[in-house]
Amino acid sequence: MGMHRHLIFLLLLFLLLLLYAPDLPDLPRVVALSEDVAPGTLVAKVNVSCSNTSSSPNVTLHGIDPGHPFNPIAVSADPVATTTFWAEVTLRAGAQLDAHQVNQYTLTLWAACPGEEEVEKQLFVRVTADQALRCDTPFASVEGDVVQVLADVAPWTPLYAVLPQPLGGLTFRLRNHDTPLMLTRRGLVLAPASGFDPSKDIQTFRLEIEVMDHHGHNCSGAVRVEVLPPRRPRVTFLELQQAVTVPEGTGPLELVTQVRASGDNIHYAILAPTAPVLFTIDEMTGEIRSTRRLEVAHTHLIVQAYNALHPTDHATATLNITVQGTDQRAPSCVPAIVVTLVTLRCTGAEGNLHYALEGPPASRSHFRMDGPQLQVNTTLDYDSEATDTMGFQFTATIVVMVGGQPSQSTRVPMLVTVTPVNEFTPVCPNGATFTVMETAAFGSTVGRVTGTDRDYPRDSLEYSLEGGPGPAQPFSVDTHGEIRVVGPLDSQRHKSYRLTVRLTDTHNDLDPANRRSCLCDVTVRLQAVPAQVPVCTPEVQELRIMAGLGGHQPVTRVVCQASPNGATLAYAITGGNEDGHFRLEGNTLFYLPGDLAEPHTFMLLVEVWGGPSAPRHSTVVALVVHVTPQSTAVPPSTTPRHTTLQKEPLVITRTEAVWHPVAWFVAVLTISGALLLATLGCAARNLLCSNRDPGKLLLSKSSRLSRQGRPWGCAQDGDREPRRDHESNMADLLLASCSLLIVRGWLHIPVTAQQRELG
User: Fold this and answer.
1) C-alpha distance across the termini of the chain, in Å
2) What is the pTM of this model?
3) Which of 17, 92, 402, 747 could form a disulfide with 71 if both were Cys (CB 3.0 to 4.6 A apart)?
4) Nearest-CA neighbor of 58 among 17, 15, 115, 106?
C-alpha cells in the first residue's frame, strides 16, 4: 500500500514538471528608438530563463505585420548562469522607421524551452522623430559649392547634384530665379535649354537651393557655376617649310616673303638666328623684308607664331632663303614648296635639269621623282602606326640641278601631309547583353556599349539611342555609350528590352560630314524581385449566419496582405461552393439565398494570389459557414391581416484556435497514459481483493443470497480493520482518478476566441 502511494506521488510530480514553463522576467517593458538609427541596431536584449540546460530555447516574434522592420530573434547563452539565455531584437537590413506613420510597435515574444510549456510576453518599441535634415558642407557653407563648366556644353547637361543626408522623399526649391540654369525635382542643376553664350568671357551664376523632407525638416545651401570660354583654336602655320629665292642686289626693306598662321591674336617673331642680320619680320603681318642690299648667300630662318594673350600657344616654321647671283642663277621652280603631288615647272637656267629627292628614309621610301613629277612610291595609309609615328607628315627636299652641277641647283622643300579618309564602318560589340534589377533607381548605370572602328583615331565613336527614351524603352544612351535607367521597370510586363543603338564615327575624315554609322542590338534583361505568398489573417474561419429572404447578404471579408505592400490581390472560390450559394466580390464573401430548407454547413476554400505573375504564388483560406434557414411565420387567413417585419440578419464570426501538439509528443503522452491506466487498474484490483477470505469462497445458496449487494470475495461487515484499509485505498484510487481527469482536461482544453459582428 505504501508502494502505491509512492507511485501516485511520482506520477503527480511528473505532471507538475510537464506544466513548468520558461520565464521572461524582463517583459513586458517599453523601449524608445529613434527613427534615424542604422539597420542592424540592437533594439532590446531580453532575459530567458529555462529549467532545462540541455539546449537553448526557441524564441520567435508573433502578432506583427509581415512587413515589420525587425530581424528574427537571435538567442545566446549566458556565460555565467547555465539556465539563463539572452534573446536579442535587432533591426533588419534596409529597415526605415517613420515616427509619423508608425510611432509604436507591439512585439509578442513566444519562448519555449525543450520539454517545457511555451510562454508569451510583449515588448513595446516606441519610435521617436529623427533629427533635422543635413546638407553637405561645401553646399551648406556661406560661399557655397563651386563647379566650373565650358561654355560649349550641350543644353540640358547635368552640372551639379545636391546630395543631402539622409536621401529619399526630398523636395528641392530654387530660391532665386535670376538665372538661366534649371533645377530638377531630383536636385540636379542643368544647363540652360538654349545653352551658354560662347562669345562672352567668364560667366558666373549663383543658385540658392532649399531642401525639405516629408517631415518638414529643411536645409539650404548655394552653388556657384562658373562658365569658362570654349576651347580656343591652336596656333598653326599653313606652311611649315618654305624655300625662297631672291636675286642678288635686292634693296633694303624690300618684301622677300610672308608667313601666315591661323589662330587668335597671332603675332610673329624670328627665333633663329637670334640676332638676324639680313632679314626682319613684321610682328603683326608676318612679312619678311631685307635689312640691307643683299649679296649672294644662303640663310636659314626659324619663325615663331604665338597667341599674344596666351604665349604658351605657339608654332614654328622654317624658311630657306637663297640669294642668287645674276651671273650663275639656279633654276627657278614653281611651286617653291611642294605640299601635294605636283609636277615642278623650273625655268631660268640653260642645260638639262636633273631632279633628285633627299630626306629621311621613310619619305624616300614612299615617294620618288619621275622627271619633274613627284609620285607616290607605295600606298599611303593614314591608319597605320608608321604614319602616326611620322605625325602624318612626310618631309623631304627636291634638288633641281643644271647639268648635274650642285653650284647651279635649287632646293624645293617637300611637305606632304596625309589626310584621313573614312574607310571603315564601326563594328558592334559581341554579345551586348546587360542585366539590371527591376528595382533600379532613376539614373542607375546599366552598362556601357563599346564598339570598335579601324579608322584613326581608333574607336572615336559617338553613341545614340534610336527612337529616344520612352515608355517602350525606359533607358537612355549618352554619347559615350553609357546606358542608364530613365523610367519605371516591371519584369511582369517586360522580361527584357531590345535597344537599337547607333554607332557613328567622328574625326575620321577631312570632311566632318563624311561619317559612317551602324546599328547595334543591345539586350537589357530585367532581374525580377522574388514575389512572396500573401499572408491572410486568420487562415481558418468558422462562421454562423441566418439565411435572409431576399438579395445577397455579406458574410465576411478575407483580410490578406501582399508583399511588397500595396500589391493588388485576387480572390477566387476554389472549392465547397455547392449550388453556387456564395459569391466573392473583391475580398468580401456574399451569401445568395436559395431554397435551403434545413441547416447546412459549407466548407469553402478561397484562393488568394498576388497578380498575374507566373508561377502564381497563392494562399488558401478555409471558411466554415453554418447556414440556418430563417423560418417565417405564416399569418392566418382570417382578418385582420398582419405583416411580419423582417429583421436584419445577424452575422456571427467565430474563430477557434486549438492547440495541436507535435506527433512525437502525442505518441509519448498516449503511451504514458496507457501505462498509467494499466497501473491504476492493477492497483484497484489488488485493493478490492486483498481482504477477501479464501475459506469462505464456497458458501451456501442462502448465505450468498443474504449478501446480495456486497462485492464478491470482499470482507464481511464485522471485519472493521480491513474495511478501514479498504476505504483508505479507495480514497487513494479516487485521488489518482481525479489527477488523470485533470491531465486529460489539460491536454484537450482548446483556446477559444469568439468574435461577433453584425452583418
Assistant:
1) 63
2) 0.32
3) 92
4) 115
Strand segments (E) across 139-265: 145-150, 158-161, 170-174, 182-183, 188-190, 203-213, 218-228, 236-237, 241-247, 255-258, 261-262
**The C-alpha cell that represents 310 in the structure block:** 596666351
What's the confidence (pLDDT) of residue 350? 52
Dist. CA 418–CA 388, nearest whole Å: 10
- If residue 16 lies in a helix (H) or strand (E), which one and from where to where? helix 2-18
E-strand spans in 548-585?
A: 553-557, 560-561, 570-575, 582-585
In a domain, 680, yes or no: no
The answer as to whether 496 is a domain residue is: yes
Distances (CA, A) of 251 to 122, 289, 579: 113, 9, 126
The pLDDT tens digits for 520-535 are: 999 999 988 776 788 8
CA 30 to chain centre: 35
* Residue 78 grid cell: 549566458
Question: What's the number of domains the chain is made of?
Answer: 6
Q: Which helix (H) or strand (E) holds 664?
A: helix 663-689
Looking at residue 90, its pLDDT comes to 93
Burial of 59 (C-beta count, 10 Å sphere; 0-12/13-18/19+): buried
How many other C-beta atoms are found inside a 10 Å radius of the C-beta of residue 473?
A: 20
Q: Which of 568, 555, 559, 727 is nearest to 649 (CA)?
A: 555
Rounded to the nearest 5 percent, the helix, strand and coil shares of the chain are 15, 40, 45
What is the spatial distance between Cα 5 and Cα 687, in angstroms, rounded to a whole number? 12
Judge if 29 and 117 occupy the same domain.
Answer: yes
- Take residue 659 and report the three cell numbers written for it: 492547440
Please give the DSSP secondary-structure letter assigned to residue 580: G
**Paired residues of 195 in beta bridges:** none
Write the CATH number for 516: 2.60.40.60
Could you read off the pLDDT of 653-674 as tens digits, one per residue? 555 556 667 778 888 889 989 9
Domain span at 500: 433-527
- Hey, how many other C-beta atoms are within 10 angstroms of the C-beta on 458? 11
- Residue from 351, 475, 485, 466 nearest 408 by CA: 351
Q: What is the mean pLDDT of residues 531-549?
A: 84
Taking alpha carbons only, the member of 656, 723, 718 closest to residue 687 is: 723
pLDDT digits (tens, 9 = 90+) for 112-134: 888 788 888 888 998 887 666 77
pLDDT class for 631, splitting at 50, 70, 90? low
Distance CA 367, CA 361 (A): 10
* C-alpha distances in Å from residue 302, one per residue of 117, 306, 320: 103, 13, 9
> What pLDDT shows up at residue 643?
34
Higher pLDDT, 713 or 106: 106
Q: Does residue 428 lie within any of the structural domains?
A: no
Q: Which are the contacts of 68, defined by CB distance < 8 A and separation ≥ 6? A: 61, 105
Single out the residue in 228, 259, 290 at which a domain terminates.
228
Residues 82 and 180 reside in one and the same domain: no
547 shares a domain with 609: yes
Least Cα distance to 286 among 262, 322, 309, 310 occurs for 262
The answer to whether residues 101 and 158 belong to one domain is: no
Could you tell me which residues come within 8 angstroms of residue 646 by beta carbon, excluding any fewer than 6 positions away?
A: 548, 549
pLDDT tens digits, 703-753: 443 444 444 434 444 444 444 455 455 545 544 554 544 444 444 434 333
Amino acid symbol at 576: G
